């Protein structure tokens, strides 16, 4: 074997480049597996790619710069999300703490109200009980002393009999009557209303959060849709038909009559009953007292939300409605009565039929008498509805509300003067805070914030 240095030099194999599949090939592979492909020499392909190299490198530099900017933006977005989440958690935690503090404060106030009411009423009742027990003891002692007087002792007999008579006279007259109402027992109703409102609000807000978490304007859109729905008469069809009374009780509002507004010819029975009388009552002077109309208002003023209360018509002609806070109680009779001005509206029972009044116009209603009338004030919807309450069912008597313009722009009832008056002025009534209002027109008129049982009505009629 010749030495290695004497062997002919090895010739490197010729390499080809397949542009179709972008692979390097020897002559044998190129001839067998890549027939029909565009094959070029390796040096030829390198020369071509070297010419393209500056362009590729420039594109790479541009892309690196773009990715750098995009990465910086993504990092800022990540930091923003984290910081926003931390801040939002802090805000939510603070708001929950404030809500819990408000509920705790309300709980303390309500419990204190119950304790104060219990202490006041217990002190009065226990004092009456103690005086009655002491009187019974004195009468028993005096009777016993009289029985022990000897038959022949006339002086002692007269003395003991006189003592017995005096003891008897000290306790003459009717005993203390039980309280008409335990004021603190309405506390649970108030707390239940707060609980129901809170639960409903939580459910609504949670649905909004779940449905609109990725939409920046989601809450605003929902708010606009809800407002539009509240202005749509079709959205209140439930309130326009016969529905169970329990549906309205979740909006129940406790109405207490304000004695400082009662006309001098109105006799109040606690804070729930009122009757018109012939002889004036010597009420103290009050700037809010009606002077020309036999009317009385409820305490407090209403704005926002939905409120429902019931009234029992016991006797006579009665009007039930609402009046704007601040309406002058010194207005003359023709302008001061419920429904005879732009600041009030009412349902009237005149002994023959129901009717509704607003701004001096009246519309008779084709409904039979119902002793129990439900009043539903829908402040957000700017509407006031009156219902006949029978056997746990609500029958709509009339719902007062301005018509919503139709798509053509025309009003719903252009030929109805009463509806036209509502369309023109009724919404303005809701720019004020409103108060429950009652007008007793006939001399025997008598109503009670209800509902009442028949036995209660019988007792009130005997007063």
Automatic annotation (TrEMBL):
Spell out the subcellular localization from the entry.
Cytoplasm; Nucleus
Pfam families assigned? TRIM_CC
Region: Disordered, residue numbers: 124-147, 214-239
**Which ranges are annotated Basic and acidic residues under compositional bias?**
127-146
Q: Name one GO molecular function term.
A: ubiquitin protein ligase activity
Cellular component terms (Gene Ontology) = cytoplasm; nucleus
B30.2/SPRY domain: residues covered: 235-456
EC annotation from Swiss-Prot or TrEMBL: 2.3.2.27
Question: To which pathway does this protein belong?
Answer: Protein modification; protein ubiquitination
What SUPFAM superfamilies would the database entry show?
A: B-box zinc-binding domain, Concanavalin A-like lectins/glucanases
Answer whether the UniProt record assigns the keyword Protein transport to this protein: no
Keyword set for this entry? Answer: Coiled coil, Cytoplasm, Metal-binding, Nucleus, Phosphoprotein, Transferase, Ubl conjugation pathway, Zinc, Zinc-finger
Q: What is this protein called?
A: RING-type E3 ubiquitin transferase
């Amino acid at each position: 074997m010749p030495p290695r240095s004497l062997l002919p030099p090895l010739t490197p194999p010729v390499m080809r480049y397949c542009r179709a599949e972008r692979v390097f090939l020897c002559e044998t592979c190129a001839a067998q597996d890549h027939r029909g492909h565009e094959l070029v020499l390796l040096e030829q392909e390198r020369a071509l790619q070297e010419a393209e190299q500056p362009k590729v490198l420039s594109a790479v530099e541009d892309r690196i710069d773009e990715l750098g900017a995009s990465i910086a933006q993504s990092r800022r977005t990540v930091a923003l999300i984290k910081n926003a989440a931390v801040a939002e958690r802090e805000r939510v935690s603070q708001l929950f703490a404030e809500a819990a503090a408000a509920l705790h404060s309300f709980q303390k106030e309500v419990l204190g109200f119950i304790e104060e009411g219990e202490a006041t009423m217990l002190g009065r009742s226990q004092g009456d009980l103690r005086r009655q027990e002491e009187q019974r003891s004195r009468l028993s002692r005096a009777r016993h002393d009289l029985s022990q007087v000897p038959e022949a002792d006339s002086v002692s007999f007269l003395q003991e009999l006189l003592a017995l008579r005096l003891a008897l006279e000290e306790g003459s007259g009717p005993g203390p009557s039980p309280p008409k109402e335990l004021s603190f027992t309405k506390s649970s109703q108030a707390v239940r209303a707060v609980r129901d409102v809170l639960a409903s609000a939580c459910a609504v807000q949670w649905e909004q959060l779940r449905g609109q978490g990725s939409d920046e304007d989601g809450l605003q859109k929902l708010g606009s849709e809800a407002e539009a729905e509240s202005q749509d008469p079709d959205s209140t069809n439930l309130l326009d038909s016969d529905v169970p009374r329990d549906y309205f009780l979740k909006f129940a509002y406790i109405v207490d009559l304000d004695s400082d507004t009662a006309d001098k010819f109105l006799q109040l029975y606690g804070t729930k009953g009122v009757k018109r009388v012939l002889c004036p009552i010597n009420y103290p002077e009050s700037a809010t007292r009606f002077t020309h109309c036999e009317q009385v208002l409820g305490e407090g003023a209403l704005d926002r939300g939905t409120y429902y209360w019931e009234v029992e018509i016991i006797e006579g002609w009665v009007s039930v409605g609402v009046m704007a806070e601040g309406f002058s109680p010194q207005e003359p009779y023709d302008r001061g009565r419920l429904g005879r001005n732009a600041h009030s509206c009412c349902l009237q029972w005149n002994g023959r039929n129901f009717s509704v009044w607003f701004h001096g116009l009246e519309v008779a209603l084709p409904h039979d008498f119902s002793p129990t009338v439900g009043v539903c004030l829908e402040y957000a919807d700017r509407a006031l509805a009156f219902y006949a309450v029978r056997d746990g069912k609500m029958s709509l008597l009339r719902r007062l509300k301005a018509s919503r313009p139709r798509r053509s722009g025309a009003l719903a009832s252009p030929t109805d003067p009463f509806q036209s008056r509502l369309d023109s002025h009724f919404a303005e009534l809701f720019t004020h805070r409103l108060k429950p209002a009652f007008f007793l027109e006939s001399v025997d008129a008598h109503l009670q914030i209800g509902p009442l049982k028949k036995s209660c009505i019988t007792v009130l009629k005997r007063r």
